[in-house]
């Protein structure tokens, strides 16, 4: 009986929107027992769903993200393969899969064609002893492996890079490399593709037709492709949520999705669909609501090791994303900055708190903490710390701190602000908007003022905010890579290239480190040393 099959789902952390609530509820209403695996707190989970910590299946140290998007889809791919291998009579379902009728299988195989070319793994049932499942698990053990299904030309290219010591990490490969592409290949290789349901079984509404689900006038088109043989409808979660957030947060009245929400009695107000900007604003509000970090004479936590509390320890204590919880920049900084720790230097940081205009939040937002400033003041007990931000941090009072309000989109403002930093800075950290031209504006204005022998750091090279990034501009990582490779700055704008090349003789060296210092990941942080 189909009701003997449990449904396994994953939501790493955070609030479910009504789209995910609807999908989870649909399986409950179809008679399935649903297990929702998670790693941190989740909200808006329907009554009847069993919450299970993901470490029971796969430890958190196996987290892998897609380099271009930052998505957890790669980790989700690995997670579902381990889940199926560990559980008999379990079928995996993405949280954007809606259950039309109970899932059933005589062999444990349950999956379907999404198109003429691909079997999608958004709904996936495989018996634990499946040959295809074993090969999928084996494949995911090598994060730099060359896909079997790649063309001969692509295999040769990837092999040469590997031989040259520059292997391509799975996070930098094409979207779906460990998902639909791998699932299709291994099911066909082992002959298990014969169990695949036709398109109408699990993916009757294709990716390109997804908006029909939310448009009343196109409801008949959806109803025409959902047949008695349809088990599930895929909602293509992230894209559908983006569409909904751009049209007021709700599907059209009378649309197919609206009909399903009413059928399952889903309270859309209790689990709203939010845009990325709204999520960022909510996260900023949560951060403000957290108990404020100690502002004076903080009591050090117990730290083992001969060196005592280092910069990463301070970052974690003050809640800075530069520490071990997220970017791990402080591991590099401690090695570079420690010789300056007891000196009376001038230190400048641009960008003092996450959640500014680059995330869609008004520059005049209320700011209530500056975790990295507190960290720097403690790490450099003799330094004068200067902070530069487009939002107001003038409320932060310390006899060794000076705030300068400045818009990184305005070069004259940057020039004005750096003149106020006295004496000349010894260390500069750019953690501002991360837009390429903002980073480059700042470097051109500030590097000439940097003390001889000083260090200039540019963070978050892999991510640029869409509201600010200029089309066609040379990325900052690429710009400094050109200097490393050719001792010449190459830029899409010849005038900018000329300005950078005029500073070249003052650069004694540059290092560029990848995300979390892991080989094969995208460039993430640059450190430039001044002669």
Helices and strands, with pairings:
Elements: E1 6-10, E2 14-15, H1 18-29, E3 34-38, E4 42-43, E5 50-53, H2 73-86, E6 90-93, E7 97-99, E8 110-113, E9 119-125, H3 131-139, H4 152-163, H5 180-190, H6 199-202, H7 219-225, E10 232-234, H8 237-245, H9 256-263, H10 276-289, H11 311-318, H12 329-337, E11 346-350, H13 371-379, E12 384-389, E13 401-405, H14 411-419, E14 427-430, H15 436-446, E15 455-458, H16 476-486, H17 494-503, E16 507-514, E17 523-530
Parallel strand pairs: 1-3, 1-6, 2-4, 3-5, 11-12, 11-14, 12-13, 14-15
Antiparallel strand pairs: 6-9, 7-10, 8-9, 15-17, 16-17
Largest β-sheet summary:
7 strands, mixed
Calculate the mean pLDDT score and round it: 89
CA radius of gyration: 26 Å
First and last CA, distance? 74 Å
Overall shape: it is elongated
Number of strands: 17
Main sheet strand line-up: 13-12-11-14-15-17-16
- Class of secondary structure makeup: alpha/beta
As a percent range, the share of strand residues is: 5-15%
Parts with pLDDT < 50 across at least 5 consecutive residues = 65-70, 293-302
Helix amount, in percent? Answer: 25-40%
What is the helix tally? 17
